Amino acid sequence: MRNDAILTFFSERCRKACKNALSAVLAGLLSISWSAEGWAQAGRRDFMPLSELKPGMKGVGRTVFEGDKVDEFQVEILGVLENIAPKQSAILAKLSGGPLERTGVLGGMSGSPVYVDGRMIGAVAFSFPFSKEAIAGITPIQQMVNIFDKPAEPIRIDPIKIDASVVAPYRAVGFTPSIDFSSLNPLGQRTFAVSSNSAPNLQSLAGQFFNYIDTPISLSGFTPKAAQLFKDTFQHLGMPVIPAGGMTVGSSSTRLADNTADIQPGSALAVQLIRGDLGVGASATGTVTYREDDKVYAFGHPWLSVGPVQLPFSKAKVISLLPNLNNSFKIAVPTELAGAITQDRSQGLYGAVGVLPKLIPLTINLKSSRNKLETFKFEVVNDRFLTPFLMNYTVFNTITSNERALGEATLQVAGKISVKGQPEVKFENRFSGEANSHVFASLAVVQPLSFILGSGFDNVAVESVTVDITSIDEKRTATLDRVWADRENVKAGETVILSAFLRAANGGEHVEKFPIDIPADMPSGTLQLTVADGSTLTAVENRALRQTFSPRDLDQLIRAINNIRKNDRVYVRLQRPEPSVLIRGEEFSSLPPSFSSVITSDRTSSSSLTTLRSSNLYEYELPSTPFVISGQRSLTIEVVD
Asked: Where are the alpha helices (DSSP H) in 95-182?
């Protein structure tokens, strides 16, 4: 009986203890909001909230100081800076250990995770320039995670669609736009320089304000001249330029790394802008803050703050540390391709391991002045803002690394841009001079790409870019000196022989003869012929029209780009002194009187309609010449019965 009583007693005690424990667990569970995010955070994210942080608390951080080995450094919490931006705070801390005593906070440490009592508090993201101690600002990890946990739904605004006029051009040899393309360039006239207003930093003043830690751009395979020309743009974006020599084998491969388990908090990460064969590339080095399954959070501050992106990221190897009185930094190179960064926001970068980014293949075929043909292959990030600048940089570097950058030179550029579901975008031009031919040659590639990416149309997918460049070590320019016709009177349907006298820069004289067909339905009367090079004729039109080009669709934009006039040939335009109108970039002449009175009346107003005093009946593009031509001449002929 006694044994039975003892068993009953302990059974009752165990039952009550289990009941109390279960009640406690249930109470705890009920105190948590069990959304999907709540489950994930409770089960997997061990973050310390800001409310628990106190000055004097000690912790550790993780980063790479050498090679790919993650080392620890010590952290002392100094306090919390509330509301440094709307609903954003920062943790102020003193770092120590390892090389930090002599280097201070290093560029490339961006994203280094910090732990207190074994719980993550955030990522090293800020520093004070010229500071005598390694004082850093830490972005709270919860802020980093929250900004990416709930992606915003894109707002779609359907454009107003208006059917084009059914009136077709009266006569046309081919569509030639009368437009100012500079209005379409998303970079404006700043092809080589991005405004400092875009810089995602807090504008330091003698070290009294903290900055986002610099993210060094490591360049390999780029000439000092190219790096010098473009470094100001990178610097404005908080990215000092560092020559890195040849990159590690595999850094240009499109094959993902077999093992990505070593990508953990504290690992070095290289975000790549340009990837190329022979170790050519540009990359920015930072640190992984947090990894959850295949999701990766890094940097702890914006890099370019461009929102949705497609940036390849690789593992990285730190070659050396460079102490600096202003901002010390790591010198690192990328190794194996690991995944893609898909978001660049105010609290850091977000991406996924094992995902191949969508890049734009760039092929450059360069026929050098020594008559040697070489092919260079690159991959450039696909972004409306970044791609034109990076393409510009890559083409410029390819030319200057193989051809002379100063002295007489002539460069012929031709190529094509493949856009998904659209006709090929074609470009061609020739540039000659003593100093800047390579600059204009790279712009000839970039501008059509800028027009396409900056058009604002939906589903613009650039699939590849191919560029053919021919270089000659001599100046080949010519001036259009005079023009004459073989007769003054001509009948409709006959042919007039135009002769153009070209005077070359070296004193040589050249005469080019061109047959011009007078249309069979041309009525009698005075016909004015304007003969000019492509640039001059376009500039004259733009001054006269003062109208920006607003293409109604991508097809019209591509046709306009494909008909951009070239510098190495002359154009002949046949005009009549009769009114015409320009509607949405296309000219209509000899309109029916009733239609003309309606669209030109005071009751009709449209920004896409311009009335012209003369009509452009035909325009002929004559064959290319070996020269870059400049000049304009006019003459008249009489069409007789």
From this structure: 100-103, 141-149
Are 461 and 546 part of one and the same domain?
A: no
**52 Cβ partners below 8 Å, 6+ apart?**
none
Give the list of residues 6+ apart from residue 49 with CB closer than 8 angstroms, or none: 142
- Whether residue 264 lies inside any domain: the answer is yes
pLDDT in tens, 484-541: 999 999 999 999 999 999 999 888 888 988 898 888 888 888 888 999 999 898 887 7
Contact partners, residue 633, CB within 8 Å, separation at least 6: 480, 482, 483, 500, 530, 531, 532
For residues 499 and 570, give the distance between their C-alpha atoms in angstroms, rounded to a whole number. 11
In a domain, 188, yes or no: no
For residue 619, give the H/E element and its range: strand 615-621
pTM above 0.85, yes or no: no
Rounded Cα distance, 331 and 333, in Å: 7
Residue that is last in its domain, among 411, 437, 472: 472
Whether the CB-CB separation of 610 and 585 falls below 8 Å is answered with no
Residues 338 and 417 occupy one common structural domain: no
Identify whether 164 is part of a domain: no
Instruction: Check whether residue 255 and residue 375 sit in a common domain.
Output: no
Helix, strand, coil percent content, the chain, rounded in steps of 5: 20, 40, 40
Do 337 and 255 form a contact (C-beta atoms < 8 A)? yes
Structural domain boundaries enclosing 81: 50-145
In total, how many domains does the chain have?
Answer: 5
